[in-house]
Design goal:
The protein is of the alpha+beta class. The chain has four helices and three strands. Strands 1-2-3 form a three-stranded antiparallel beta sheet, with no helix packed on it. It starts with a strand and ends in a 19-residue tail after the last strand. The structure holds zinc ion (ZN). Keywords: Membrane, Transmembrane, Transmembrane helix.
Length: 92
C-alpha cells in the first residue's frame, strides 16, 4: 500500500509488521459469535464456561492494540497513517 511518510516527506511503500497475523487477529472478534445463543447457559456455568468467556473478553484488549498498530514505512521504518490521505479535488 502507498502512504505518505512524514519522515521521508514523500509517498512510500508501507506495510504492517505481520499482515497474516493481522488477518487472524481480526477473526478473533468473530470467534464468540456462534456462542451468542448459548449466553444463558454460559452465564450459569461459573466453573468452566464463564471463566473461559472472561479470558476471551480480556483478549480483546491486546487484539485491538494489535489492529490499531499503524503500518510502517518500508524505507525508514516510521509509522504512517492507517488510511491514505484524501487529496483535495480541485479546491486548492
Ligand atoms: Zn519513511
Amino acid at each position: 500500500m502507498r502512504r505518505d511518510c512524514e519522515r521521508c516527506q514523500r509517498e512510500v511503500e508501507a506495510a504492517y509488521d505481520d499482515p497474516r497475523l493481522r488477518k487472524w487477529v481480526k477473526g478473533y472478534f468473530f470467534l464468540g459469535l456462534p456462542f451468542l445463543p448459548a449466553i444463558p447457559i454460559i452465564g450459569s456455568d461459573f466453573v468452566v464456561m464463564l471463566p473461559l468467556l472472561m479470558i476471551y473478553v480480556v483478549g480483546f484488549g491486546p487484539a485491538i492494540g494489535f489492529i490499531k498498530e499503524p503500518p510502517k514505512c518500508q524505507e525508514c521504518g516510521a509509522a504512517v497513517a492507517h488510511q491514505a490521505a484524501v487529496a483535495p479535488s480541485g479546491l486548492v
